[in-house]
């Protein structure tokens, strides 16, 4: 029971005891008084009537006496008046047995009022001739007592009710700061930094709130410091200071991730831009000028080839690279051409009269199963070809790796797959060191006519191009819920939400309704979004995430740490877990800077009670390296390849 | 002390109307004579216990009529104070009620039936003042004897033309009526005690 309720109960009981005590005391006093009245009233009447009767000169004149007695008796206040002679023989007798209807019988039975008989002598001259006995009627006393009891009762009930209402409101007001302190304390436990601006007026409460505020500020500072460290390490490790693009290390990490034979790996285009004779520019005008040019080229490249999934990096002093997963040559060609044609205006911005520099552009296909070395070698070859073509020329290097994505009758294939229900779910679990499952991440796969199982990387570009992501998302969620309906599951099923859910209101509504309908499974469901959506599409993603959290569904961030972004949003968003980008796993063993960065991420997330999962773990060494940095959960081939969810 | 002890033994059959302690207290407060008067009162009871009622009436009437007449306002500094017999004797002073009361209780102690004794309010015609006497009825309807402190001799009521009877009350009747009503003599709840009740209260140890 809450303190508030206990206090109300305690004070109300005290109040009621006091009121009941006062009530009974009051009633008993009234009763005593009335009892006294009955007696004195009878005695007074007996004496005065006795005196009157004594004044009758003829002691045998009974009729006069009777008349006098009647006159008094008929006033109605008496139960009986007897006149007896000196030998106790009755001379005259009046009785009133009438009861009063206004008073209930139980009351009369409960409270016994007795009217004592009062006696007085009647005399004639010196000689007593009889005794007069008067008994008051108790009816009036009962009526009086009953009335006063009713009045008292009403008065006490009203005052008790009023007092209790006042107590409740006063206590509520007085204990309000306690409620707020409770909220603040709970927020601290949840690592939320709730600061109370208005201090309560009660001294004790104010001191506690001041102390708690100080604690909140301290915790906040600690988090800010961790976030700053992480940001600094991130920049040092992965960012080129001149262009703000990824540096070579980041490029290698990301491209390794893109090429790894994982679920989402798709083929795409890779593009390289080389600034020729940059050294001449540097020699002639200084390094600042050279940096300025590189920066402009980087901006132009980013501007023309912008897509959220794309990676832009500075490979070395003169070469910039763009990786465009899922793009086709027909999409990219005009963009490259645009950059090329834009070159003169870039050079013009340098405002120097003669510029010795020029650009070369080259681009080519890459496939998920290629290795990085081969691709880099091909890029080298391609860019040399481009520069041999002359100044500001582009070159498409057809390595014969042309993807087959874009020449397949995809629309038909996908439509058939949907109608024939040939999409199925695979899962890969994340474990902690004790091999207990954190979650089962599900992947959608396509079973072709001939029984070949295709992973998402194979058909997703087509799905996106044909605007079927919403259908596919729906299908995945339905399959997952179907699984939960049929299978006893103890671990959570983690479902990836794509951008289409965020952009498609109807799909969002459908998702919320579906979650509402299968509320018993919510504790076994987790949803994941990529860091890009969470950190860079806040206005779209956060409302949905809040909705999910409100329904107590777990929420995780996928590809965590891969974007060059500020991590402070974690404080506000509070995901349940983050899955580190697979790229870290490639670098974790050898790269000291990646290790420090991952370590700082772990510290940051741990301070917010967010679980960290390392992805694409392929060997014990990687797992050991992550464990040392504070990662608790692991997912990857070391623990088994993705397997069909149903079994 | 020996004397007292002796008196105690011989008086075993007769009621103690006044205790040794009360006598001692009266002696200390009001002097030797007060103590002697109280002892004389006890002696009166001792000597008359077996006497016929006529003798008892005369002796008791004579005994108390020896007491000085003092008005309440002079004696007790109160308008209407009903003194106990001990107070009356110890101070050697009282007014009509005090005589009447003292006679009433002494006769009662001597075994006279309370039914025969009445306290009667009368008007003293010559003095033209309210007065109280004790009346004794040998039989319920007989002419009562008047024990008065103005005319110190006992006379039948018919010979007291100087007194007009107004009203009588029987002390024990009142007393009993009280007891029936309360279960106790005078409860603390009674706000206004009558003079009679006040007296009874002070008489309680008697």
- How do the strands of the widest beta sheet of chain B line up side by side? 4-3-2-1-5
The portion of residues forming beta strands of chain B comes to 5-15%
* Quaternary: heterodimer
User: What is the structural class of chain B?
Assistant: alpha+beta
Quantity of strands of chain A, as a count: 19
**First CA to last CA of chain A: what distance?**
48 Å
Radius of gyration of chain B: 17 Å
Mean pLDDT of chain B: 80
Strand order of the largest sheet of chain A: 10-11-13-14-15-16-17-18
Count of DSSP-assigned helices of chain B:
9
What is shown here, in short?
The complex is a heterodimer of chains A (647) and B (206). Chain A is an alpha/beta fold and 647 residues long. Chain A has 22 helices and 19 strands.
Task: Describe the structure in your own words.
The complex is a heterodimer of chains A (647) and B (206). Helix content of chain A is 53%, strand content 18%. Chain A has 647 residues and is of the alpha/beta class. Chain A has four domains: 3-171, no CATH class; 190-238, no CATH class; 248-405, 2-Layer Sandwich (Alpha-Beta Plaits); 408-644, TIM Barrel. Chain A has an eight-stranded mixed beta barrel with strand order 10-11-13-14-15-16-17-18. In chain A, a hairpin with a 5-residue loop joins strand 11 and strand 12 (453-454). The model of chain A has no long low-confidence stretch (mean pLDDT 87). Chain B has one domain (16-203): C8orf32 fold (Roll). Chain B has helices spanning 2-10, 20-30, 32-48, 53-65, 72-75, 85-91, 96-109, 171-182, 195-203; strands spanning 117-124, 129-136, 145-147, 155-156, 163-169. Chain B has 206 residues and is of the alpha+beta class. Residues 1-12 and 175-193 of chain B have low confidence and may be disordered. The A-B interface holds A 32, 36, 39, 43, 50-51, 54, 86-87, 114, 116-121, 123, 125-129, 131 and B 118, 120, 135, 137, 140-144, 146, 157-158, 165-170, 173-174, 177-178, 180-182, 189-191.
